[in-house]
Predict the 3D structure of the following.
Amino acid sequence: MSGSEIQIAEEQNDKNTVAGRSTHELLNATQTIERPNDKQLLDALWRTPNQYHQIGVLDAKSNKFNHLQVKDAAEAIAQAFALSRAGKNTYFACAEYLSSDNRTAANVIGAWAFWVDIDVGPDKAAKGYVTIEDAKTALLEFCKRAGIPEPTHLVASGSGIHAYWALTSSLEREAWQQLAQKFKGLTQALGLRADPSRTADIASVLRPPGTLNFKYNPPKPVTLIHAAEGFIDTEVMKAAIEAAFEKHCSSSIDFDQATESVSPSPVAVPVSDAYIEPPNLLQLASALTVLDPDCDEKTWKFYRIGPMAYAARAIPEIHDQLKTIARHWSSGELRGIPSKKWNTPSGYGMSGKQMFNHVWKRFLTDTYAGKRVSLGSIFFHAKEAGWDYTQDRAQGEDDGAEGEL
């Protein structure tokens, strides 16, 4: 793609509109036979020979998410184009996998990049930015303040920006996760409004360039708007994250934010047979949207926060995702209705926000040997409140997707 074509694509996403163009016209315009830059991002992130790679597809009608194994970027793009032509939202797994069995974090062998997902749009200003230019400016300012290199790749996803820091060498899963947690802490400490569930999730999937974002009517093109000529030296990036974290996160962020961003790794201990099978996180978040966080204290602690903390304790790989869901539900952000108790002192003189981390840590580390309340209680109460997941379309609302856990 030429520089002028990239500029045109960027301007289209800046305006957040492709009005006046039919889906058929968009498919012809954005999914031609030869678009070498469409696989440029995947070539940068999938560099290990003979490794397992995956793409995912979300069927808007059935709301089912399926994963497909592909051998390389060329095959991934070809399949993604075909799926997009069929009207399906298509994604690619950013990391590389040990096998084709699943897309769990435990199956990841490593990753060649870090990434962030930033929402853009007039209706997303509270958690993102109004325009593409606003998001790009904030992203570059974040890099400058943190002292880290600028992203090597930027993708306009149709409803935001995906930024990638592609490295000269791959990081093994555990090393990546430790650094990504600190990177996530940096985004929060320095005020970059990036999706917190994506930055430190090594099993994330995001939209590949060249496809269409079918959250909109007409759909919007997903376009690579920037690609650097080279990659960032891995040791330089590691040192930059460590130094920035030490500078900005050791003393400048408050207790609540710090404990969310840099939570101690919970120890995997037997909790309950109910947690042998990991929960569907999207389904859990969906169920919580019908449950009021301004409930009585017993319900909030023992029937909402407790079960999620116990699940995080039993399955450390999804600790951060569960804690984020619990926190967003408690604050009212998940429901879109601010919680009154979140910022109001209770009889203990502490607000819900101040209590949250104490309560979470209590359930994460207690020594109670009796029967515990499971996540089933959340789904039970949600169904009592009229929740029906088969009618829910929450999965189609995200630009990326959580790791399958």
Q: What stands out?
A: Residues 7 and 225 are 7 Å apart (CA to CA). The chain has two domains: 3-239, 266-397. The longest strand covers residues 160-172.
